[in-house]
Fold these 3 entries.
Entry 1:
Amino acid sequence: MIFACDLDQTLIYSRRSMGPVGESELVPVEKYEGEDLSFMTRAAYSRLRELSLELDFVPTTTRIYEQYERIHGLTDGIRVRYAIVSNGGRVLVDGRTDAGWDGMIREAVRLTAAPGEEAKALFDRLADPRWVLKERYCDGLFYAVVVDRDGVPDGWMEELTGELAGLGWNCSLQGRKMYLVPDPVSKGAAVRYVKELAGASFVFAAGDSLLDESMLRIADAAMAPAHGELFRMYGGENGGSIGFARRSGIGASEEILDAAAKCRREARHTG
């Protein structure tokens, strides 16, 4: 069994996103320039350590490799053989880039999506530079743009989505970060590839954003926390195959891990 899980605001949380929680309940899992940036609850961390020994836990993130490597908590007593970074653009096996996937995904982007410069030029034409704060081209595959969210007009994302579709690209807004992504680059496609690599027959997936939806839709069972883009879109219901946690914030990770453990027990019983 594979447990493919988004990281930020699904499994790990910054102080700004975690919600009310006692300091004594927190375990730091990411450090940058001497500062603890991300946390899990002690209960969630303990459950993940146990669970990682029973199945293939696959961290699945939009972070690029260098940002993923900062999460030291995923190397301390937690077994990770496979990981997915760059929103599905790179698959790691035992910490190294899988060359087979790398070649396939870059060829797919070349054949089916417009060059990155075209997508970015379209964005620049539609965006107001007054609310664009920072931008980065990630892994030569997609763009991450930091924006002043209050400045983004209502309906603007819908306009951008429609324009990008003609180029074979899509977009997502998560907090202050806007992502422009070519269609072949998705977490769902990468999870399907890892499933084949691992020889797994069952996938449980969890995530909070529209960039996670592709992997939640191809999973055998899936859960989203009671916050984030997916919760806002579906209102905690009518998500089809996606179940929703009762809790929001950092507490939702405990529910997600409990659901993954339940799937593992049921798979073991039926197997």
Entry 2:
Amino acid sequence: MKKSQDKVIISCAVTGSVHTPSMSPHLALTPDQIAEQAIDAARAGAAILHLHARDPRDGRPTPDPAVFDAFVPRIRDATDAVINITTGGSTRMSLDERLAYPLRAKPEMCSLNMGSMNFSIHPAARRIPEWRYDWEKPYIEGMEDLIFRNTFKDIGHILKVLGEGCGTRFEFECYDMGHLYNLAHFVDEGLVQGPIFIQSIFGILGGLGPDPENLVAMRTTADRLFGRDGYRFSVLGAGRHQLPLVTMAAIMGGNVRVGLEDSLYIGKGKLAVSCAEQVAKVRRILEELSLEVATPDEARAMLGLKGREATAI
């Protein structure tokens, strides 16, 4: 186990690219909404803000750097949180599109999916009685026949141009056991150095299921591959599995991620009104467990980040 005094890093994934406007009226779609939700989440205790962009006209995911520029600098000016820009984007974006803003911003952190995979929530389309925008239904149903692509060559390219080229460190998103082995391969190749931040993801169709046993298996496999002191472990649970799994992760010495990208709910059948509501709830749970929450600067130290002054944001 890591030292008992280690604090827990709360990451908040603000809007993502999976959920659509018809699924919740509280999902941030415009730059103003994304900025507001991110700033409030930081004030509630999130040390890291994981950010995607959406077209303000209809809420569809976009890689457009101009849209990112409409909210990322505002978040930087209003908080001291670590800004973490997606390199995943969506299954419909090319690698160049996904890297367009990260390469411009040179942020402290970026997310990095550690493999190609089926990634879908297409069964959710059956539960939506009415769609707000015409693009949503074919977008969700179309996931059934799409693959999120990150080949070894893609991952290596991202590690070189963003990691080596920009000094950006990564939230290594691992949706399956094999993704840990993919990460270990890049450690062996010398393209990844510690401290390593592993985000284990449970409950996405196409990845590991939300069974608690899978969390234990991912943790023990990461221990075997990297050594307990060679990485930082974090967990997100999709949908209704969010709070049980992140609580389990914290008890096991890990860190946590919440936010409307990962779950639209705050409790059974009750939509969360904001990302900050989820952050505040998980913070209460952590503190009731006598765990301390890391500040942004403490998270920077724990993860070996270059500091906000070294970015181009």
Entry 3:
Amino acid sequence: MEFTQLTLAITISIIISALLTAACLQSMKLIPDIKYPVNEYRSISGARGLAAFFVYVNHAPSMLTNMGYTVPGVSQWGWIYANLGSFGVQIFFCITGFLFFDRIIKCDGKLDWNRFYESRIRRIAPLFYFVCIIYLVIVFVSNMSLHIDKHDMLTISGLITFGFIDSSMTIGGFKLYPLNSVIWTLIHEWRFYFVLPLIAYTYCNKKYGMPLLVVAVAIAVVDFKNSAVVCWPYFLTGIVVAILANRKYNLSKTVKYLMAALALACFVVTSGIMVDNGYHWSRFILSSVFFACIVLANPFYMHFKPMRYLGEISYSVYLLHLPVLYLSIKAIGTFVDISNLSQNEYWLIMVMIAPVVVLVSSLSFRFIEYRYMKKK
């Protein structure tokens, strides 16, 4: 494993900066206090909040390279920043699989699918398309023109369809990758939503449900062996953990403490492990064990209110942190020479931008996301 004082200091300071900002905004009641019906899964919200800022930590140093800057010593912070990025995405996938299969279990597969897909569209689309408008505004300001050709139309089509239509993601020669390099995960989310009715049907069929789950695990093993980046098994992890959680095992305090400690151990190993592929089978095991322990043990350290606050705004953080990073670096670049920044100076800038991301995400949650949510 690889840990240095500097990489740990950078990562921890960014997370603390975000948590302190969340605590301040929470005391100001900037966003509504949402009452969730499944309070026994409070640790899920805390995990979601951390996952969102793990992705921020991932993109903080790589943003310079994506924007075309060459800053020696800044573009790489060691393995921890890359590991946390993939770890955050994997936890998001596990949470998705868990929450929706948990719902299927509780209603015995009898979901109102029209209402389900309407709620998913209302939850995901408004903010996503708002952020796409931000992309177009940045392109227009950068190029001062919008001469649209067929390649640009293909990119716009790709944005409208959440990335399902493959394109170069360029408009007028402007590469959108520094702004939207996270949207590839939405494709996997929508694919899971599309197959969820089949999963529900399989679950209700007691004769074939368990054998098909075993087959899915076998396919996952083969896929990890033959594919470079494998994402769908993380939804499978969520499904398996949902099944275990609904068995209502009466775990002793000692077992829960041991599971909480195991979750922390998995996190430490994941953060410092040196692997070329963040979606390798070994990472899948670490992420899956971490997620299972967090849900089943429900450790107290995941109930920290600022973490749960970040969990509420995590979708906004996920989509908006890249535009905020991009615009912030552009603005700072008008006053200082970005290429001459030292690692410590750039680190300080990233710590200062983190509260901006939390504030902007809080506002987008309150005025965009929350308007379309139907949580009681």
